[in-house]
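REQUEST FORM: STRUCTURE PREDICTION
Request ID: SP-0412
Submitted by: Lab K.M.
Chain count: 1
Length (residues): 390
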Amino acid sequence: MRIMTRRPPEFGAVDGTGEYTNRTFIGSLRAEYDALDGHLLNAASVQRVSAKRDADGGFGPSGDKGERTRYGVESTLRFGERSSVQHLFTLALDREETDSQNTEAFSVEQGARHGTNNTGIVGEYTLAVNDRIGFGASLRHDDNSRFQNATTYRVQGSYLFDSGTRLRAASGSGVKNPSLTELFGYDPASYAGNPDLKPEKSKGWEAGIDQQLLDGRMLLGATYFHSKLGNEIYTAYGPAPDYFSTPDNRTTLSKQKGVELTAEGHITEAWNVSAAWTHLDAKEDGTEEIRRPKNTGSLNLGWTSPQQIFGANLTVRYNGKMTDDNFYDVGPPVVDMDAYTLVNLGIDWRCTDKVQFYGRIENLLNRNYEEVYTYRAAGRAGYAGVRLKF
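STATUS: Completed
RESULT:
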């Protein structure tokens, strides 16, 4: 494992000396109501995100603002809790309204406000038999104001043996619509949108095995996964120094397969640990995909004080070597990028049943690294906040 601590000549070369400011409001409200002696749970929720960004970089001033509001209602019916066969039925309805606008537009057309509305309905059924057999199936239909309506699914099942070994498998599909930025861009001199973009569509399956150890205090898992992605949205870049770019759909399939290993356990009542390692083989029309490291891993160590008043969490995240497009004016079109390791630390303090303070430090060791070639990633950063219950 090699941690990148050097600064090559091209490190952050495309960043320039620009600055940007983000102002974001995030709000969420949820209400729940039990009926039928707790067998029927009803819930309603609303979420709101409002953001405004102003930037002054090498390509001149730019900015945008946008809002996203999501409403949802759901009802879950459960019965058979006291028997060997348990059933769970869920029906849900949600609606998401999104709009955005460029605030530093170069024309009236580019400064227009754009929006998308999506209404989804979900049905889900879950079955458990003697805590051994598990089965689940869900279906979702989306009615979109801008794109073709879509129906997606997921089916899963598992079986637990007396030895503590569980075999499991799942299959499903998904759809991801283009963002408003990808559709309409933000600067005709550097990034032009593509209103003809199609939604990405994916299908995949996985199969795995879990093993309990130490009287259930340790759980080991291994999963093989395989998926295909069509109409993948990518960004095509022009040459230096302008790097003019625009998004488009690929005409070939993106195929991803690999193995994930996991482990989690409770060392004591206060300490717990979890780890994961993924080996990925990602190819687009037979060619290795950029920004898809073959190996990634994480290690998480958590501690909780008696009565759960204090807590701390240490996370180590490893990102292996990968390739990327060359955003520098010299060298080959595709370059190799170094692996890097990041350390994050989080703490929390529950001073009352209704008030909790929390804080976290990301990139604790202040490593120099890049997730995108020639674009510097954030250095050490600290965050703090408070959670209130009413």
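NOTES: The CA atoms of residues 34 and 107 lie 53 Å apart.
Reviewed by: T.R.
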